[in-house]
Amino acid sequence: MTIVESLGWVGGALAGLALLRYLFHRRLHRPFSRCLDCNTPLRPASPAQLRHVPRSTLAIDPTAWYCPTCDKVLWRGSHVRRMRHTLENFARGDWVVAGH
Ligand SMILES: [Zn+2]
């Protein structure tokens, strides 16, 4: 591999990393806009769907979302907190996945 070819590969890798950072930034600022499993746009949960959310969670945050494709109700839980911490790490350039 020549130096020019190496620089091309490095440039492509850097562009890929920049794109990843952009996508993670977007997720960070709109983390609940799409389902993490199927990428379908989420809808606000209806009152009937909110019955699936633990009361203790609703007492802290009455917001929840619904994925019509997965037929799932989503709310802010520990997995969402970990996702947010991981995305915040990525946004800072720290490629560290938050632990439990
Ligand atoms: Zn889904």
Q: How would you sum up this structure, described in words?
A:
- The protein has 100 residues and is mainly α.
- The chain has one domain.
- It is 47% helix and 10% strand.
- A 3-stranded antiparallel sheet has the order 1-2-3, with no helix packed on it.
- A hairpin with a 4-residue loop joins strand 2 (64-67) and strand 3.
- The N and C termini lie far apart (42 Å).
- The relative contact order is 0.14.
- Bound molecules: zinc ion (ZN).
- Zinc ion binds at residues 35, 37-38, 40, 67, 69-70.
What brief labels describe this structure?
mainly alpha, 3 helices, 3 strands, 100 residues, single chain, binds zinc ion
Secondary-structure map with pairings?
Blueprint: H1 3-29, E1 43-44, H2 55-60, E2 64-67, E3 72-75, H3 78-91
Antiparallel strand pairs: 1-2, 2-3
Helix pairs in contact: 1-3
The protein binds zinc ion (ZN).
Q: Radius of gyration, Cα only, in angstroms? A: 18 Å
Mean pLDDT, all residues: 78
Total number of β-strand segments?
3
Which term fits the overall shape? elongated
End-to-end Cα distance: 42 Å
- Tell me the number of helical segments per DSSP (H or I, 4 or more residues long): 3
Report the order of strands and helices. Answer: HEHEEH
Proportion of residues in helical segments: 40-55%
Main sheet makeup: 3 strands, antiparallel
- The tally of structural domains comes to 1
What ligand molecules are bound, each kind once?
A: zinc ion
Strand order of the largest sheet: 1-2-3
Structural class per helix/strand content?
mainly alpha
| Range of strand content | 5-15%
Which blocks of ≥5 consecutive residues have pLDDT under 50?
none
